[in-house]
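Purpose: get a first structural picture of the assembly so the mutagenesis plan has something to point at.
Setup: two entries, given in the order below. No constraints added.
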Amino acid sequence: MSFRLHDSLTNATIPLPQRTPGETSLYVCGPTVYGYIHVGNARPPVVFDVLVRHLERQGLIVRYVRNFTDVDDKIIQVALDTGEEPRVITDRYIDAYRDDVAALMCRPPWAEPRVSENIAGIIAHVEALLAKGFAYVTGDGDVYYDTAKFEGYGKLSKRQLEEQSASEGRGKVGEGKRNEPDFALWKSSKAHEPDGARWPSPWGEGRPGWHIECSAMAHALLGDGFDIHGGGQDLKFPHHENEIAQTEPVHGPMASAWMHNGFIEVDIERNADFSEDVLARLPALKERFPDLRKVSKSDPKTLQGYRERDPATLTPDDLAMIAVLERKVHFGHWFQLRRLRDRVDGEAIRLWILGTHYRAPLAFDLAETGEAVSFPTIEQAEKRLEYFYDTRLKLAAKIPAGVMAKATLVDTLAKLVRDFDAALDDDLNTAGALDPFAQVFTLTNKLCDTKRPDKRDLDAADAAITHLTAVLGVGEGDPEAFFARVTARRVKCRDLDPARIDGLVQQRTAAREAREFARADEIRAELTALGIELRDGVTGTSWRAV
RNA sequence: GGUGCGGUAGCCAAGUGGCCAGGCAACGGUUUGCAAAACCGUGAUACGUGGGUUCAAAUCCCAUCCGCACCUCCA
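Result (structure tokens, whole complex):
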């Protein structure tokens, strides 16, 4: 095992930690299930799924835990808004999450704990922190972590204690909180909060704070310390910093390595088509609103606020803000994974994500021509996927025709597979791994195009492709199922009539057989205009929506 | 201000001292009734800028400019 990874705690590249030889334990922070996820949330499951596949392929047992945060202020808010019980809400979004990540070709983790099913362990952990003097109870029945007691506080995010501001707690210093960065381990329930979000505890009815949940669930499933803790970059502080602070005093060092993925970012100025006036005002607006470019959940509300104002009172700056907000809301709409999946295949989203190293930022592209919305880089990935599956179909059809000639590709293919594995061994360099991946497919196509392909070459190509696609989780499905899925989506999206297309294709075939090529080309032009691509093969003509 | 990440060809994106990235788009060719798909080939002094080290720098050192993210719920 020569896998090495970048550890965010030490900022060094280290060998894969294995507390138990032949086994690696991995904890990844999962979603808070209060709504549908957006494409940014898709990155961690995809990245860590590839990590698990790669390690397992090399014979390791990976104990991969990804939690569901089903107890949280945001869930309570949804419950209060809709009148539903929290469990109903969280069940719904857990199902939706599983559906989304399955579409991204992520395999289920070894364990998916829910906070609501780990309350006893959480209470025990809080009690242990209280007993050791790392936490204190306030008059309101809240329990806070005392960050001043933990010497290593700030070591993951590399920040000094005094710089930090409060998080995860309603209190301010003086109102029961001892230090500004102290965070809640247990929050007392308020009268109006739903029954499904309160549990009895030694400190009265309440619910756990966000950070303690992961510490407790990781310990429940992986024991005292584990190998790798993963999650998005933004969780470094405060979430993971707090997990360390909570875990170390009770169970000793938490994770041997930390892996943080970069963000998927949207750039609203890109292709935004703003007017000269808006563009001229952007710099000044950015001064006033530093997070102007960031797509935020409060954007629709803010936009609504502007729309409700008397147009006469709107200044040019306001109008510019409206233009920008409209753009942000538009991006936000397509950022949601469910919506995006209506336009591009989940597997293509996966390939798009893997095209960039997991620690680097990844730009989300959206282009518009008139009414039509497109996602250039993801659509590019989808075309690539079609190529992979086409190649597999071609290879499968050619394998029976293999002969004992001269095998020339066996060694080359083996080397490409080694290069592929080596790229992944180097801190999961999926983008680098796509190089040998591409070369294997080119060689396979070339091999299939030869008249008398060697049987051993064909088998070697098949074995190489099986390995590469299984590790990346890209192009490994049933090709027919893939094309059926993609065609069905495009047909639906463009409101095409498959029966009519089949009819036109038949007419064209008849014309071609009669050697009436002008007529045949006329029909093809008609189909092209509908976005249908034809392929004349030896076994007849097939069509695909492009 | 603090902590990180980055600037590589039209676009996306690997690469951390000498040798090839890869993909998309473009162009030429093989193939095809013509296309499409596939394959082959081509392209551009590609490495933010200025110095330095070295036989050799995208890669190391110094300086500098620019961009991004997080530091408040966020993957």
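The mean pLDDT of chain A is 90.
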